[in-house]
């Protein structure tokens, strides 16, 4: 039997534009103070989490998309509901009919307007102006005048001025109405979808108290129907009817009076709206995880709780045919050496991404992964802040100082660093890096750091395991295998790579001679190794 177009999308990435300004809207306004950790914008940028999100997002609704993004950025304090969530995920994977019915309902919230539902419970609402008390009076006066006009046409001189005044108020309110014209109809949709989902016993377990929130929203349903009707008007006849309805609304000031009445009611029902939003968003996020897992050749559910990182066949999700690597930290941190482009930074990012994915979505891009529950901090992508007159080195100093502050807390941390202090001179860089890396690797913290400073490999053997990535230089080619290898890098190929790229021979010869002299000096007076 041929599958529907909807089900063909299950397990596949989206082909659409990602508006992160709207996707992040819920996350930016949400109070995540009770979360174990909120992933910072710095770490998000370092680990390319926006690009990762574009890969893993398989949601059907804008609500689910916002909710999933928040899940990725906010590591929860507990995982009490993981068992329930895994049951729902597995049901999505196994039951095509269940999956299709759920997807059909969620897709009703696929319009960008659904992004604005969260503003109804997260943002301040418009407050009616002080003069607005006259609006009900104008509405009542217009109604009485229109009724009396049937018996006395001379009252037209009263009706017309009232109509003009009401028209001014009506169109003044249009700007206010536009702010909520997107969210009100979507709120009615999500309420209906939540009511339908709640009939399923498995979904019901997500929030057994949901009917209370739905009942509260039903109290404002009728008042919001007017705003929903306007968005559905299409065709010539309907437009003609719309004109008639618009005149009635002007005469009675229905829109401004109802708008502020609804806002007053909604303002007291924020928790109910959030409960419905969270219920539907959670379901769509779980659908997305199910779709993600279906589309992956290799994934695992992490084992969380020990004080080391042990991974088998870990890979970066954004790299096609990515070379996998395995690692056991053996209760130590990791110091990586290797040439540029050999895979050091990608491996560090892979560890960070998988740590966050495991703690937030219970899914890792690996064959198996054991890891502690720890906070993730990074110093990978650092640049000059020219607008604030801050150099690269100063930006790096500030970033790493924050890491040092976090390293002294009772909660374990994972620190990810790439080429520490490469913005300063060799002697001071090595001296400072040794002291800082030793400090960071205390209190059950784990550090993954890459460096070109081979001297550090001799200074940090007590607290760091040494690994490296290397390239193979053959004739006129440089090949990378991207495989993690134990021990420190022993071969140096930087000058050889210059030679392969046709640098002048006099430069190559001078570079070789200087390198040999420096090596000889280091053997005679290895002061750098005693810093």
**Reading side by side through the largest sheet, how are the strands ordered?**
8-9-10-6-11-14
Give the overall silhouette.
elongated
Quick one: biggest sheet?
6 strands, mixed
**What is the count of helical runs?**
23
Q: What is the percent of helical residues?
A: 40-55%
Protein name: DNA mismatch repair proteins mutS family domain-containing protein
Transmembrane segments: 131-149, 155-172, 239-263
Keywords: ATP-binding, DNA-binding, Membrane, Nucleotide-binding, Transmembrane, Transmembrane helix
Organism: Plebeiibacterium sediminum
What would you say this structure looks like, in words?
- It holds the Pfam family MutS_V.
- InterPro entries: DNA_mismatch_repair_MutS_C (IPR000432), MutS (IPR045076), P-loop_NTPase (IPR027417).
- GO terms for molecular function: ATP binding; ATP-dependent DNA damage sensor activity; mismatched DNA binding.
- This is DNA mismatch repair proteins mutS family domain-containing protein.
- It comes from Plebeiibacterium sediminum.
- The protein is of the alpha/beta class and 531 residues long.
- The chain has two domains: 13-295, no CATH class; 303-491, Rossmann fold.
- It is 54% helix and 11% strand.
- It is built from 23 helices and 14 strands.
- The protein has helices at residues 5-8, 20-23, 25-29, 41-46, 49-56, 62-73, 82-94, 96-106, 119-122, 134-149, 156-181, 183-197, 201-204, 210-230, 236-252, 254-267, 270-295, 344-361, 392-407, 426-440, 455-459, 494-500, 505-524; strands at 37-38, 74-75, 303-304, 310-314, 325-328, 333-337, 368-371, 375-379, 413-418, 446-451, 464-468, 471-474, 477-480, 485-486.
- The strands form four sheets. It has a six-stranded mixed β-sheet, with helices on both faces.
- Strand 12 (471-474) and strand 13 form a beta hairpin.
- Helix 6 packs across helix 17 and helix 12 (183-197) runs antiparallel to helix 14 (210-230).
- The N and C termini lie far apart (71 Å).
- Mean pLDDT is 86; it is low at 1-6 and 527-531.
């Amino acid at each position: 039997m041929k599958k529907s177009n909807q089900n063909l999308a299950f397990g596949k990435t989206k082909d659409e534009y990602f508006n992160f300004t709207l996707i992040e809207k819920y996350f930016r306004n949400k109070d995540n103070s009770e979360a174990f950790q909120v992933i910072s914008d710095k770490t998000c940028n370092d680990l390319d989490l926006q690009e990762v999100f574009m890969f893993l997002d398989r949601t059907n609704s804008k609500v689910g998309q916002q909710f999933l993004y928040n899940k990725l950025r906010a590591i929860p304090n507990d995982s009490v509901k993981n068992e329930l969530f895994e049951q729902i995920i597995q049901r999505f994977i196994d039951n095509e009919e269940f999956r299709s019915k759920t997807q059909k309902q969620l897709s009703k919230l696929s319009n960008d307007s659904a992004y604005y539902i969260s503003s109804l419970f997260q943002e301040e609402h418009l407050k009616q102006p002080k003069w607005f008390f006259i609006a009900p009076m104008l509405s009542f006066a217009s109604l009485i005048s229109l009724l009396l006009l049937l018996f006395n046409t001379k009252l037209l001189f009263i009706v017309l001025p009232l109509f003009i005044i009401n028209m001014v108020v009506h169109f003044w309110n249009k700007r206010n109405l536009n702010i909520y014209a997107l969210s009100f109809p979507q709120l009615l949709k999500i309420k209906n979808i939540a009511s339908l989902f709640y009939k399923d016993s498995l979904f019901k377990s997500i929030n057994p108290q949901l009917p209370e929130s739905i009942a509260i929203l039903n109290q404002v349903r009728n008042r919001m129907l007017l705003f929903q009707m306007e968005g559905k008007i299409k065709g010539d006849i309907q437009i003609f009817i719309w004109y008639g309805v618009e005149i009635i609304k002007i005469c009675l000031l229905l829109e401004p009076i109802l708008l502020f009445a609804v806002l007053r009611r909604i303002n007291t029902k924020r928790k109910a709206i959030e409960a419905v939003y969270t219920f539907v968003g959670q379901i769509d996020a779980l659908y997305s995880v199910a779709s993600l897992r279906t589309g992956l050749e290799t994934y695992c559910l992490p084992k969380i709780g020990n004080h080391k990182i042990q991974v088998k066949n870990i890979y970066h999700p954004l790299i096609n045919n990515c070379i996998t690597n395995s690692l056991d930290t053996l209760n130590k941190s990791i110091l990586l050496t290797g040439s540029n482009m050999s895979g050091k930074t990608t491996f560090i990012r892979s560890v960070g991404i998988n740590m966050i994915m495991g703690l937030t979505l219970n899914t890792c891009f690996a064959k198996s992964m054991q890891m502690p529950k720890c906070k993730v901090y990074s110093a990978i992508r650092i640049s000059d802040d020219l607008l604030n007159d801050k150099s690269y080195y100063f930006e790096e100093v500030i970033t790493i100082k924050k890491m040092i502050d976090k390293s002294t807390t009772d909660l374990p941390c994972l620190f990810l660093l790439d080429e520490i202090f490469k913005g300063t001179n060799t002697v001071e860089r090595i001296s400072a890096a040794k002291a800082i890396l030793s400090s960071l690797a205390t209190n059950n913290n784990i550090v993954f750091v890459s460096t070109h400073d081979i001297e550090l490999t001799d200074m940090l053997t007590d607290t760091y395991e040494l690994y490296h990535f290397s390239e193979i230089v053959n004739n006129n080619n440089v090949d990378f295998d991207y495989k993690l290898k134990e021990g420190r890098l022993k071969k140096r190929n930087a000058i050889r790579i210059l030679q392969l790229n046709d640098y002048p021979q006099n430069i190559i010869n001078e570079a070789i001679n200087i390198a040999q002299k420096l090596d000889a000096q280091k053997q005679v007076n290895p002061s750098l190794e005693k810093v």
